[in-house]
Amino acid sequence: MVDSIYRTRSLGVPAQGIPDQYADGKAAKVWEYYIGSRKSRTDVYKNWLTSLLSSKNCDSVLDVACGTGVDSVMLLEEGYNVMSIDASDKMVMNAFRERWERRKEEAFDKWEIEVSNWLTVADDFPDRRFDALICLGNSFAHLPDFEGNQSDHKLALKNFETMLRPGGVLIIDHRNYDAILDTGRAPVKNIYYKGNCIKDIQTSSLFVNGRPSMVTLDYFIDVTAARKMEEEGEEELPSGRKLKVTEDGVYKFRLSYYPHRLNAFTELLKETFGQDAKHEVYGDFQPYRENETPSYYVHVIHKPF
């Protein structure tokens, strides 16, 4: 295992969409400060996603990287029928808790939450089909390529395609790894989270036979500032609880990703959905124009009828 040589994730930090690899630790609490409130996303993201789903006449949505359920809750509140899955039962427990707390609301009473893996989801739910499937927040990049041929990436995408009805739409994103690999730096800006206590992100890239194989990001969080904001009521953390941080200063945690380049990922999608499938690319939620350098690319691809 690569972690026996080079630790790819701080202890206790969950990865949405794939199984947790470590037990709880201090870093998990620091990660929550990075995210900020899990009860809401940026307004730009919310407005973009709901407008997109509305324009595609979507009603049923499968959230395949639900984590604690923040995106799913957002869509439920907007009137969508949502099924949420994650491979991490620990992360999904937060979604179950949210559903229980709001069970008297009809949308939440009907909310389906399941533990499932991207590599088996089509077999786990063979009769289910959806208008839209979302895999956002750079979640797909958590899936590694240990075989070196992207076989797991291709299988996961094929399963996503299978879960869509004809005419359905996959909405999936990744960081701008072209810029990260070319410059050696990841931007601090995050278009999804409201947390504003991050001081720096340090970037390491691993190449195997000249081919980018892994990008590791070390996040530096100003916990002192985050704690002050929490005490002043400016930062609401998950489940309304206060996280106790006993030391002052800046904390670091680490996550590793597969670096999907824009053109290569587009080809993966076309290989799965067909070369003639309608495909749109957004940069930070704006229609992407060549030579722009967004922080994130969001792909929207339609399953042909």
UniProtKB/TrEMBL annotation:
<protein>
    <recommendedName>
        <fullName>Glycine N-methyltransferase</fullName>
        <ecNumber>2.1.1.20</ecNumber>
    </recommendedName>
</protein>
<feature type="binding site">
    <location>
        <position position="31"/>
    </location>
    <ligand>
        <name>S-adenosyl-L-methionine</name>
    </ligand>
</feature>
<comment type="subunit">
    <text>Homotetramer.</text>
</comment>
<dbReference type="GO" id="GO:0046500">
    <property type="term" value="P:S-adenosylmethionine metabolic process"/>
</dbReference>
<dbReference type="GO" id="GO:0017174">
    <property type="term" value="F:glycine N-methyltransferase activity"/>
</dbReference>
<feature type="binding site">
    <location>
        <position position="86"/>
    </location>
    <ligand>
        <name>S-adenosyl-L-methionine</name>
    </ligand>
</feature>
<dbReference type="InterPro" id="IPR025714">
    <property type="entry name" value="Methyltranfer_dom"/>
</dbReference>
<keyword id="KW-0808">Transferase</keyword>
<dbReference type="InterPro" id="IPR014369">
    <property type="entry name" value="Gly/Sar_N_MeTrfase"/>
</dbReference>
<feature type="binding site">
    <location>
        <position position="136"/>
    </location>
    <ligand>
        <name>S-adenosyl-L-methionine</name>
    </ligand>
</feature>
<dbReference type="GO" id="GO:0032259">
    <property type="term" value="P:methylation"/>
</dbReference>
<dbReference type="GO" id="GO:0006111">
    <property type="term" value="P:regulation of gluconeogenesis"/>
</dbReference>
<dbReference type="Pfam" id="PF13847">
    <property type="entry name" value="Methyltransf_31"/>
</dbReference>
<dbReference type="GO" id="GO:0046498">
    <property type="term" value="P:S-adenosylhomocysteine metabolic process"/>
</dbReference>
<feature type="binding site">
    <location>
        <position position="22"/>
    </location>
    <ligand>
        <name>S-adenosyl-L-methionine</name>
    </ligand>
</feature>
<keyword id="KW-0597">Phosphoprotein</keyword>
<dbReference type="GO" id="GO:0005829">
    <property type="term" value="C:cytosol"/>
</dbReference>
<dbReference type="InterPro" id="IPR029063">
    <property type="entry name" value="SAM-dependent_MTases_sf"/>
</dbReference>
<keyword id="KW-0290">Folate-binding</keyword>
<keyword id="KW-0489">Methyltransferase</keyword>
<dbReference type="GO" id="GO:1901052">
    <property type="term" value="P:sarcosine metabolic process"/>
</dbReference>
<dbReference type="GO" id="GO:0006730">
    <property type="term" value="P:one-carbon metabolic process"/>
</dbReference>
<feature type="binding site">
    <location>
        <position position="65"/>
    </location>
    <ligand>
        <name>S-adenosyl-L-methionine</name>
    </ligand>
</feature>
<comment type="similarity">
    <text>Belongs to the class I-like SAM-binding methyltransferase superfamily. Glycine N-methyltransferase family.</text>
</comment>
<dbReference type="GO" id="GO:1904047">
    <property type="term" value="F:S-adenosyl-L-methionine binding"/>
</dbReference>
<dbReference type="GO" id="GO:0042802">
    <property type="term" value="F:identical protein binding"/>
</dbReference>
<keyword id="KW-0963">Cytoplasm</keyword>
<feature type="binding site">
    <location>
        <begin position="117"/>
        <end position="118"/>
    </location>
    <ligand>
        <name>S-adenosyl-L-methionine</name>
    </ligand>
</feature>
<dbReference type="GO" id="GO:0005542">
    <property type="term" value="F:folic acid binding"/>
</dbReference>
<feature type="binding site">
    <location>
        <position position="41"/>
    </location>
    <ligand>
        <name>S-adenosyl-L-methionine</name>
    </ligand>
</feature>
<keyword id="KW-0949">S-adenosyl-L-methionine</keyword>
<feature type="domain" description="Methyltransferase">
    <location>
        <begin position="59"/>
        <end position="179"/>
    </location>
</feature>
<dbReference type="GO" id="GO:0016594">
    <property type="term" value="F:glycine binding"/>
</dbReference>
<dbReference type="GO" id="GO:0051289">
    <property type="term" value="P:protein homotetramerization"/>
</dbReference>
